[in-house]
């Protein structure tokens, strides 16, 4: 029986994905965490914890170094809320181009008897523009950015994309009409609207800064539904004060953005739809089951991809440091136990490596002894032994 601990409100559809071999919130020594936004940075991860799956994209709430040192694989659910974010961006493009928020605020303040005559007289101040023919710069063309770019094309917009890290697989999802810019400056220099959809890392921190804003045309409208810190908010406010940025829409509030009529802050709702919550929870549950039952890894944050058909009776999975001679030390232990290896695979990601070894003729008395012997190898972090039913 595998033990799963959940944090936050997880969609029931995701919890119902687990098979009868999984127990929910019945142990203080869980095999897996299924989480959303809980902050784990001040938690001590139990040694039993083999996997953390976040039902969502960002993993800034997970202490990745601690997890790796604990031998805990970390996964997110990329793409599970991509459509939700896309739809919100498209909605905000319409809101922005038609001045809907200012118009609604005006109507809420003018409800007197002559409202019809007054609004007829004043409505020209809310004249907007149509999106057709306008230019949208999409910074980051992954799960969300590609959907936004394609949807904007369908609205008749000119779309320019910029993503220096775009993978070949991701490129297939982008309509050929999306123009590809070689630099960030090239992407934004003619934009009426700029939207950013990149992960947060050292390369993207303050990606949209004073230099980037200076390259944009005056009157540009800016959207950050990616992560706090991707946009340099201090520089953005300076550009707003100079009437260079007409309006800034973001899902990530902080005090300096408050009470500014040219800034609209939404309360981190980009991926908050019922459908996205179900998608994320279901994907996370399936990821947990795959990892616990087979050891196979796809798109983990802190482990390399390794997908090996599990056709043998037994499987060793070993997380270890990416240093020389590890595989030979591991196989030497198995050879000393007179075991024949049927399948072996190894891969590395940065300073961490992962090895899968399948064997057929392992006897019960050898289980604990071999796990102990392998764990004693310097630089080995975690050893698991999986058995086929």
TrEMBL record:
SUPFAM superfamilies: ACT-like, Formate/glycerate dehydrogenase catalytic domain-like, NAD(P)-binding Rossmann-fold domains
A GO MF label: phosphoglycerate dehydrogenase activity
Top-level division of the source organism's lineage: Bacteria
Pathway(s) annotated for this protein in UniProt: Amino-acid biosynthesis; L-serine biosynthesis; L-serine from 3-phospho-D-glycerate: step 1/3
Catalytic activity annotation: (R)-2-hydroxyglutarate + NAD(+) = 2-oxoglutarate + NADH + H(+); (2R)-3-phosphoglycerate + NAD(+) = 3-phosphooxypyruvate + NADH + H(+)
Segments forming domain ACT: 315-388
Gene3D superfamilies on file: 3.30.70.260, NAD(P)-binding Rossmann-like Domain (3.40.50.720)
EC number: 1.1.1.399, 1.1.1.95
Alphabetical list of PROSITE patterns matching this protein: ACT, D_2_HYDROXYACID_DH_1, D_2_HYDROXYACID_DH_2
Enzyme class: oxidoreductase
Alphabetical UniProt keywords: NAD, Oxidoreductase
Pfam families: 2-Hacid_dh, 2-Hacid_dh_C
InterPro entries xrefs: ACT-like_dom_sf, ACT_dom, D-isomer_2_OHA_DH_cat_dom, D-isomer_DH_CS, D-isomer_DH_CS1, D-isomer_DH_NAD-bd, NAD(P)-bd_dom_sf
Function in brief: Catalyzes the reversible oxidation of 3-phospho-D-glycerate to 3-phosphonooxypyruvate, the first step of the phosphorylated L-serine biosynthesis pathway. Also catalyzes the reversible oxidation of 2-hydroxyglutarate to 2-oxoglutarate.
Similarity section: Belongs to the D-isomer specific 2-hydroxyacid dehydrogenase family.
Name of the protein described by the UniProt record: D-3-phosphoglycerate dehydrogenase
Species of provenance: Lactiplantibacillus pentosus
């Amino acid at each position: 029986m595998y033990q799963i601990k959940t944090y936050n409100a997880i969609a029931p559809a995701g919890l119902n994905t687990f098979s009868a071999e999984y127990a929910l919130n019945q142990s203080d020594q869980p095999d897996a965490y299924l989480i959303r936004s809980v902050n784990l940075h001040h938690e001590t991860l139990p040694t039993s914890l083999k996997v953390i799956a976040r039902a969502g994209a960002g993993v800034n709430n997970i202490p990745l170094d601690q997890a790796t040192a604990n031998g805990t694989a970390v996964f997110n659910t990329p793409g599970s809320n991509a459509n939700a974010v896309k739809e919100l961006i498209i909605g905000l493009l319409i809101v922005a181009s038609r001045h809907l928020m200012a118009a609604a605020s005006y109507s809420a303040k003018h409800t007197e008897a002559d409202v019809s005559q007054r609004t007829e007289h004043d409505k020209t101040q809310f004249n907007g523009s149509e999106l057709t023919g306008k230019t949208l710069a999409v910074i980051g063309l992954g799960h969300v950015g590609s959907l936004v770019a394609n949807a904007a094309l369908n609205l008749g917009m000119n779309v320019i994309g910029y993503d220096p890290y775009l993978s070949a697989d991701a490129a297939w999802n982008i309509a050929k009409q999306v123009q590809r810019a070689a630099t960030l400056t090239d992407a934004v220099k003619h934009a009426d609207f700029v939207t950013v959809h990149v992960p947060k890392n050292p390369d993207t921190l303050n990606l949209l800064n004073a230099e980037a804003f200076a390259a944009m045309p005056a009157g540009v409208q800016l959207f950050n539904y990616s992560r706090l810190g991707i946009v340099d908010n201090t520089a953005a406010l300076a550009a707003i004060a100079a009437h260079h940025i007409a309006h800034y829409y973001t899902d990530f509030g902080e005090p300096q953005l408050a009470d500014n009529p040219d800034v609209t802050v939404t309360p981190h709702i980009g991926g908050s739809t019922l459908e996205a919550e179900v998608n994320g929870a279901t994907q996370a549950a399936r990821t947990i089951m795959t990892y616990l039952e087979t050891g196979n890894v796809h798109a983990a944050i802190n482990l390399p991809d390794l997908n090996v058909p599990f056709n043998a009776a037994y499987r060793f999975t070993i997380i270890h440091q990416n240093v020389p001679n590890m595989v030979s030390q591991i196989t030497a232990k198995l050879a000393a136990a007179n075991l024949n290896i049927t399948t072996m695979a190894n891969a590395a990601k940065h300073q961490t490596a992962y090895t899968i070894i399948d064997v057929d003729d392992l006897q019960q008395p050898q289980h604990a002894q071999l796990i102990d012997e392998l764990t004693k190898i310097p630089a080995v972090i975690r050893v698991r032994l999986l058995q086929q039913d």
